[in-house]
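**Paired protein data**
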Amino acid sequence: MTPRDIHFASYHQAAHVVSALLFGCRIEYVEIGNEADKIGWNLDSVSLRDTETVCGAGFEMERILGRRHELSWNRSDDDRVLLGTIHTDRTGETLTKVERDARFTAGADSSRSLLEHGRVRGVIDKLAEELNDAYHRGERRLEAKQISEITALVAGVAPAI
């Protein structure tokens, strides 16, 4: 991964993590890597509408940072698939690609005000910085305890461990 790719991957994943935490989701870990980025989470406790916001948050963060749309969209393919799977699991209805992408885009749009909130953005910045550093140390991953310590910088964001 290039330094620019690592930068965007770090922010993308940090936006997912912080938005999920704000909706009460438990995070076990977050990882960026050459093959795929991963988050250990369970979104079952998050409403379907809020899940759309969480799934779209990484894409929206990249848009806020000025990444070209097609690059951010391609990077978010797994997020769109996840959203479709969650929707099917919860409702029994399979979304078409167009419906899924529309829900994802709406979720991304709704995440913008959350991501741009000063205190929340500060946590995203710090978490992205730590993910970037972890990648360069060869660790590529932050565990729940590390995430909790970082997010505790802003009251009300720390996850349950």
About this structure: The chain is about 65% helix and 5% strand.
